[in-house]
């Protein structure tokens, strides 16, 4: 079971948010932890039914069939207990597989708070919501219904 909230913060406020996260999170005894991921989204469609697989990989094998889009996210990550918080900018690939030819999608930063557990635990959802309150008014985190977004994208 995964508990997940997402939000967006403006470029002008990202340093304030990173400072707040450094004060709230566990992994802040050294310089900021950075990441850079390449994600490909595969969609298998059969009539009105589709299955979506999101894959992040090492960029070793560029032969990726059936992908709808791919992107690179670059930013910072933090931990608060078992929660993982990322603050990142999203770049689209100008040409498939060419990770050195990127175009920034937005000046805003994507903020994600996630927690994975083997069983459903209402206390985890409450813990994530309580943590999200500490990040207001810089960022307002909320649940995202990816199935609804996928359905809307397929009909438009």
UniProtKB/TrEMBL annotation:
Subcellular location: Nucleus
Oligomeric and partner information: Component of the Mediator complex.
A GO cellular component annotation in the UniProt record: core mediator complex
Taxon lineage: Eukaryota, Metazoa, Cnidaria, Anthozoa, Hexacorallia
Family: Belongs to the Mediator complex subunit 18 family.
One GO molecular-function entry: transcription coregulator activity
Origin superkingdom: Eukaryota
Gene3D superfamilies named among the record's database cross-references: Hypothetical Protein Pfu-838710-001
GO biological process: regulation of transcription by RNA polymerase II; termination of RNA polymerase II transcription
Keywords noted in UniProt: Activator, Nucleus, Transcription, Transcription regulation
Protein name: Mediator of RNA polymerase II transcription subunit 18
Function summary: Component of the Mediator complex, a coactivator involved in the regulated transcription of nearly all RNA polymerase II-dependent genes. Mediator functions as a bridge to convey information from gene-specific regulatory proteins to the basal RNA polymerase II transcription machinery. Mediator is recruited to promoters by direct interactions with regulatory proteins and serves as a scaffold for the assembly of a functional preinitiation complex with RNA polymerase II and the general transcription factors.
